[in-house]
Amino acid sequence: MVLVLPDLAPSMSWVGINCSSWVKSIMSRPILGETGIAQRMSTRAGTVKDAFEREFITPSGRVAYNDQTSYALAILYDLLPEQHLEAARRYLKASIERAGGRIGTGFIGTPALLPALIKIGEPELAARLFLQEEVPGWLFQVKMGATSIWERWDSLRADGSINGEEMNSYNHYAYGAVCQWLFESVAGFRPDPENPGFRHIVFEPTIIPELSPVSAHHDGATGRIEAGWSVSGKLVTYSVTVPDGARGTLRLGERYRAARMNGRELAPGIDAELLAGQHTITFELAA
Fold first, then answer.
1. Is 54 helix (H, G, I), strand (E, B) or coil?
2. How many domains does one find in the chain?
3. Cα angle 241-244-245, degrees, rounded to a multiple of 5
4. 104 plus 11 within the same structural domain
5. Are β-strands 214-220 and 2-3 bridged in parallel, bridged antiparallel, or unpaired?
6. Same structural domain for residues 100 and 193?
7. pLDDT band at residue 28, thresholds of 50, 70 and 90?
8. Is residue 174 included in any domain, yes or no?
9. pLDDT higher than threshold 60 for residue 272
C-alpha cells in the first residue's frame, strides 16, 4: 500500500458540543504565548465536558445514541470521565458487532472511528473494519475499481450500475478522511500538537500485516518526512526519515518486541529520540 449504511445522525447539539470541546481544547494550548486566552479556553473546555457528561452519559457509561459515532467522537475528543472509559469501550465494540463487524458511521463519525479504536487499544478491530470488503466499507470501492473514495459507500453497485443520480460524487472527503488514519496510525507519523508544523514528529506505527508493504511521505515546512514498513513472518522493518530542522520520537506499542534501531537494541516501552536523517527500526510482532 502506498499513500500519497450509517446510523441515524446524532443531534446537532450533540455534535456541536463535541466540536466545541475540541476547538476549546486546542485553543487552551499556549503555543502563541496567549496565556490569558489559553486559560479561558481551558476553563471553558472543562465546562463543556461537564455539560456533556450530565446530558449524554448514563450512570452505566452508555453514551447518547449508543451507536458507533457517539462513542468514537466522545473517545477521540476526551469527553468521557475515567470511570466510564471501560464501559464505553465495551459499548463501542458491541455497536460494531451489531453492525455485522462493519462500519456504521456517516460523515461526522467516520473520521473518528478508527482513531478511537486505536486510542482504546483495539488495533485488531480497527484493522478488521478497514479490511472488510463488503458494503459499507472502503475496500468494496477498491474491488469495484475505484481510484478515489466515493461519497456513498456504494456509488457503484456490485453489478456495476450507478446508485442514484444525486449525492453521488466519486471523489469525496467524508469517507476519504480515513487517509489521515492511514498516515498517522498505519504509516505511523503525526505532528506533535505541542510543537506544530512537524517540528517534532511522533512515529508510532500500527502494523496491519495484510497491507504490507506500506510507504508514505509528507512534504512539510522542514522538508520531506517519510515512513514505511514491511512484514516478513513476524519481523517488521520500519524505515523513517526525519528532515533537517526537525526531530522525531519513536514510540512502539506493547504488541511489538525485540526492537532495534540502526542496529542498536531499544529498551521496551521507552520512547527513542530520532535525530534528523534516516533510521531503520526492526521489531517482532507478538504472537
1. helix
2. 2
3. 125
4. yes
5. parallel
6. no
7. low
8. no
9. yes
Give one word for 111, left, alpha or beta, with left for phi > 0 and alpha for psi -120 to 50.
alpha
Domain boundary (90, 119, 148) is at: 119
194 and 269: one domain?
Answer: yes
Residue-number span of the structural domain to which 256 is assigned: 185-285
Residue 213 has pLDDT above 60, yes or no: yes
Q: What is the pTM of this model?
A: 0.88
- Torsion of the alpha carbons at 158, 104, 124 and 72, rounded to the nearest 10: 150
Specify whether 191 is located in the same domain as 266: yes
Instruction: Give the count of beta carbons closer than 10 Å to the beta carbon of residue 213.
Output: 12
Q: What is the dihedral of CA 18, 20, 22, 25, to 10 degrees?
A: -140
| In the predicted structure, residue 257 carries a pLDDT above the cut 80 | yes
Using DSSP's 3-state secondary structure scheme, residue 184 falls into helix
Q: Which residues are within 8 A (CB) of 54 and not within 5 positions of it... i.e. 6 or more apart?
A: none
Residue 276 three-state SS: coil
- Which domain CATH number covers 192? 2.60.420.10
pLDDT at 23 over 70: no
